[in-house]
Amino acid sequence: MEADQIISWLQATLRWGGPLILVSIGEVFSERSGVINVGIEGIMLFGALTGVAISYFTGSVVWAVLVTILLGILLGSGFAYLTVSRRTNQVVTGLMVNLAALGGTNLLFALLPATRSERVTTFPVLFPESFHSIPVIGPVLFKQPVNTWIALILPFIAAWVLYRTTWGLNVRAVGDNPQAAATAGLRVVRLKYQAVILSGIFAALGGCALTLGEVGYFASGGMTAGRGFVVLAAVVVGGWDPVKIALACLVFGAADAAQLRMQTVGSDIPYQIFQMLPYLITVAALAGLVGRTKPPKTWGAPYDPADI
Amino acid sequence: MTNTKKLKEFINFPGLGDLALSGARPLFGVLLGLLAGAGLIALSGVNPLDAYKALLQGALGSPQSFSNVLVRASPLLLGGVGAAIGIKTGVWNIGTEGYMYAGAIAAGAVGLIPLPVPPIIHILLAFLAAMLFSGIWGLLAAYLRAYRGVNEVVTTIMMNYVAIYFVSWMVQEPQPMAEPGSFFPMSKMIAPTAKLPILMSGTSLHPGFIIGIAACILFFLVLRFTPFGFRTRMLGANPEAARYAGVNVKRQILFALLIGAVMGGVAGAFEIMGLKMRVYMDFVAGVGYEAVAVALLAGGNPLGVIASALFFSALKAGGATMSIQTGVGAPMTVVIEALCVIFVIAVGYGERKRLERLEKKGKEDEEVVQNGG
What we know:
By secondary structure, chain A is mainly alpha-helical.
C-alpha cells in the first residue's frame, strides 16, 4: 500500500469510527445501568434524518444539533418508559424501534425531496487550512470535522463520569444489583431513565454526525446500515469501558474503511470478511475466547421494584 | 378473594385460559396499534378509514391479492413458529434473519446443480441442505447459550450480520455460485427440477404457506401433547422448577434454539425455490426480524403464529394498494407493525403482572382467613 493510501485509510477510519464512538458513549451508560438499548440503530436513523432536515431548513448546524438532542431525549424517554416502567423485553422493544424508525424515516424523507438534490450545511473543520498540510497528522487529524474531535475526547470524559463521579457509581450499582441499590436509597428507576435517555441523545447525535459530518445528505432505506449493531458489538468487545469501547469503535471503523475502499478499488480478499469482522470478534469475546468480558450483572434484565 | 378464585378458574379452564392469555390480550394490543397507526395516517392528511379500506382491499380484494398475502406469509409462518418455540422455552432467538440467509444459500447451492433426478428428490435434497446448514449456523449461538451461558440475544443478532455478509460474499464473482456479469450480486438461477410448483396460475403462490401452517399445527401439538413439549412449557414457565424436576435444561435450550434455526432455514429455502429462484445479496431485508415479531405477537403460541403471520402479511401486501390509492407511503405498514408489537408487549406485561399479583394477594387473603378462622 502506498503512503497516501494509508493516510486516506486512517482518515476514513476516524471518519467512520467517530460516529460509532459518539453512539457508544450513551450506550455504555445505558448498558451499565442494566438496559441494552438495541434501538440505537433506529434512533441513529432518526438523528441522521433530523440533522439533515434541520440543517437544510435553518442552514445552521447548531440548530441541527439542538433539535437532534431533543429528539434523542424524546426517543430515549420513550424507550425508557417501555423497558423500565412497563418492563417490556429490551431487545424486542429495541428491534421494534428499529423497524418503526426504518419505516418512519422513509416516510418522512419522502416529504423532504429538496434534501435529495442539495447538500446541506455540514459540520465545520476546526483547524485552519495551514494545519492540513502537516505531514500525516494534517490530513488524518486536522482536516477532520469538529464531530470527530468531540468523539475522540468524549470517551475520556465518559470514563471519568462513570468511574469517578457519584452518579457514575450509582449507575453501575443499579446495573449490578438494583435491589441492593434501592435498599441503599438510590432511585433505581430514575437512574435507569437517565442512563437510557443519555443513550438516546448520543445515538441521535451519532446519526447526525454520520450525515452532517461528511456527506451532507440522507439516503432512504437504512443508511445507518447496521452501524448501531456495530456499536452494540463494540460495547461488548470493549468490556463496558468507555475508552476501550472507543478503541474497539476505531478498529471497527478501520475495518469499515478498509471494506469500502476494497469495494471501490477491487481486491483479491473478499471485502465481506472485513464487514463480518466486528460481529465475529463480538461472538468470540462473549464466548470468552478474546479476553474476559464481564457484562453488568443485570444486563438486559427488567427491574421490578416489587422484587425486593 | 372470590373474585381472584373465579379469575383463576377462568384461566385454568382448558382452551379458554390460553385464549385469555395469548389470544385476547394481543388482539387488544393490535387494536391499539391500528388506532395509533390511524392517528399517524390522519396526521399525514389522509382519512384513516379510506387508507385502511384500501389496505384491506389490497390484501383481500381478489384471489390474486390474497395469494400475495399467502406468499408473504410463508417466511413469517415458518420463521415465526421457530422463534415461538424459543419464546415458549424462555430464550430469545433473534437469529431468524440469519437462518433464512443460511438456508437460502444452501438451498440455492444445491438447487443450481443440474441433477439428473426427479424434481421431488432435487427439492428434498435442497431442503435437507438448507436445514442442515442453518442448523449448523445456529449451533454456535445455541451451544454458547445452553452450555456456556452466553446471552443468546446478542450472539444471534451478531450472527445475523455474519450471515448477511457471508451470503453477499458467496453470490459475488468470482465465487462459483455467482451469476457471471450480473449488475447486482446474485447467484445463478436454480435448476428447473429444484423449482417448487405454483399452486395458482398467474400468481407466484408456492406451497410455503401450507407447510408453514402445517408446521404451526404440528408444533402446537408437540408443545401440548409430548414430553418434549411439556418440558419446554415447564422450562419457559419456571426454569428453577424445571431444573428441580430433573429437566435437562441445557439440552432443552439447545434444541429450542436449533428448532428456530432449522425452521428459519426452511423459510429461507422456500423463498429461493418458490419465489426468487436465485439468491440475491441482502434479499431477506428484515423479514427474519418480522418473523420474530410475529412470534412475539402470538406470545409464542404456534396457533397464534398463524393469525399474526397472516395479519402481518396482509398489512404488507395491502400497503402497496394503500399507497397508490391514498398516497400514504407503503413504509407506514412497517410502522403500524412495530406499533402493534410495542402495544402488545407493553400492555400485555402489565396485565399479566397484575394477574399474578392478584393471585398472590388472593393466596395471602386465604391464609389470613384460614389463620383467622
